[in-house]
Design goal:
Layout: E1 4-7, H1 11-18, E2 21-22, H2 24-27, E3 38-41, E4 46-53, E5 56-64, E6 79-81, H3 109-112, E7 114-119, E8 121-126, E9 130-139, E10 145-154, E11 157-165, H4 169-172, E12 179-180, E13 182-183, H5 188-192, H6 198-203, E14 213-217
Parallel strand pairs: 2-5, 5-11, 6-11
Antiparallel strand pairs: 1-3, 1-8, 4-5, 7-10, 8-9, 9-14, 10-11, 10-13, 11-12
């Protein structure tokens, strides 16, 4: 799973990193450098995503937690498994089909409505203890990067989900059984283009190289979604009994 992300940057950072522009309609009246820093953003948070709009990449805002247009009530599907119903054992060496193209909630949007989710990290716990033992995971160079996502409109509101895949070697050290799909800049154009063959898209749904990433344990107070402070992301000594957010 990937249910928490960090997004402490401004719109200019997104524009430069993703060659994107902000939507005039959505951001009219906003300072383009003004964005609320999120150190613990979870489902329900409204976050920037990057879409393809004709010839431009557009920065838009969407709710973290995808709801299909046909759903009777919001579903908040914050993750979409690349393998779909396959690889239930989460084998990190899985080489089979990407079942996301068959899942009713995702089979249409994975073909035509893909997005980039700008982050500078994500938060993951162990498979067993979950966020009782959280870790902050980020690029080794601390740069902004893109998670692969799908998006749609539910009752006039854009919503999105992070696509997850098998874990790389670094995620297995936590240990955790999943990880978000991370895209390289050279993949952005094809990922966003609705005309890209689905076979080319599913080829991108694989673990990111572990040697380009890093992580460290962080404060278990991150478990509370109301906590939002840079202090949460400092390296945490598990034996410490001092909790700034107790």
């Amino acid at each position: 799973m990937c249910g928490r992300v960090t997004t402490f940057f401004n719109y200019e950072d997104i524009e430069m990193s993703f060659d994107a522009v902000a939507s005039f309609e959505e951001f009219m009246g906003y300072n383009p450098e003004d964005i609320e820093a999120q150190y613990n953003a979870g489902p329900g948070s409204k976050l920037p995503i990057v879409l393809q709009a004709e010839q431009n990449r557009l920065i838009s805002k969407a709710v973290f937690g995808y709801s299909p247009a046909w759903a009777a009530k919001p579903m908040f599907l914050f993750n979409a498994r690349a393998e779909g119903d396959f690889n239930q054992e989460n084998d990190p060496h899985y080489k089979g089909p990407m079942g996301i193209v068959q899942k009713p909630a995702f089979r249409d949007v994975i073909k035509k409505q893909r997005c980039l989710i700008p982050v500078n990290g994500f938060i993951e716990g162990t498979t067993k203890e979950k966020l009782d033992k959280p870790h902050w995971v980020y690029k080794a160079d601390k740069s902004l990067f893109a998670l692969a996502g799908i998006w749609g409109i539910y009752q006039t509101q854009k919503t999105f989900s992070i696509i997850t895949c098998m874990p790389n070697e670094l995620m297995q050290t936590i240990p955790h059984h999943r990880m978000p799909v991370i895209l390289e800049p050279h993949q952005y154009e094809a990922w966003l283009n609705p005309e890209t063959p689905i076979e080319s898209i599913t080829e991108m749904l694989k673990p990111y190289p572990a040697e380009l990433m890093d992580l460290h344990p962080i404060n278990p107070a991150i478990k509370n979604p109301r906590n939002n402070s840079p202090e949460l992301l400092k390296e945490w000594k598990q034996e410490s009994k001092h909790d700034l957010f107790s």
